[in-house]
Design goal:
alpha+beta, 7-stranded antiparallel beta sheet, globular, about 200 residues, 3-stranded antiparallel beta sheet
């Protein structure tokens, strides 16, 4: 599956700065049978994991067709490696935005500021023109939309794609990045299904 995801990325005409790395062998997995109880109920999984506060991002990519630029709200984002500089985000395998990002071969992670909750909600909606009325410019390395007012931005090329259950793990190699003054632009946080703002202790 991981190898297939990387093959898809290549066949889609992605522009990669480096050759994708080979994925580790996938562990033995099997589906839970209809007569078996799932090890963890999905509702309980979401409830417990909701106690982990995260930042909120919008992952964007430049237009590759007449559809315009692509983007989606993503809280499953993390730094991954310092040398080489890598980050990762997770996206559902049924996402309609992901194939457009894969075709572009590049993306920009926009770390949202505390006053951008409505912007986040707009990018979480499927099927709408997510960029309507949204102010942005082109990121310097990849040309991906860099959202105005974001707390930080990370401009990347796709480095590798791995499978992870019902999601894909997308690894990006950082080409350039930047941040606003942290004292002026606090980040947007998400906790137990609600947005919030960081306040120092």
């Amino acid at each position: 599956m991981a190898a297939a995801a990387v093959r898809y990325l290549r066949s889609a005409g992605a522009r990669t700065a480096v050759e994708p790395v080979d994925a580790l062998p996938r562990p033995e997995l099997r589906s839970v049978g209809e007569d078996e109880r799932a090890p963890v109920e999905q509702a309980e999984f979401r409830r417990v994991l909701g106690n982990f506060a995260t930042g909120v991002t919008v992952v964007t990519a430049p237009a590759t067709t007449d559809d315009g630029p692509a983007g989606f709200a993503c809280q499953s984002f993390s730094s991954l490696s310092l040398d080489p500089p890598l980050v990762a985000f997770m996206v559902g395998r049924t996402s309609t935005t992901w194939p457009r990002i894969a075709r572009a071969g590049v993306f920009c992670v926009n770390v949202l500021a505390a006053d951008q909750a409505e912007l986040c909600r707009g990018f979480a909606v499927s099927g709408a023109d997510k960029f309507a009325g949204v102010s942005y410019d082109a990121s310097p390395a990849t040309g991906s939309p860099r959202l105005t007012g974001a707390a930080a931005w990370i401009d990347c090329t796709i480095h590798a794609v791995h499978t992870g259950g019902d999601h894909l793990i997308v690894v990006g190699r950082v080409e350039t990045l930047g941040a606003a003054d942290a004292t002026e632009v606090p980040p947007l946080l998400f906790h137990r299904g609600r947005f919030g703002e960081f306040t120092g202790i």
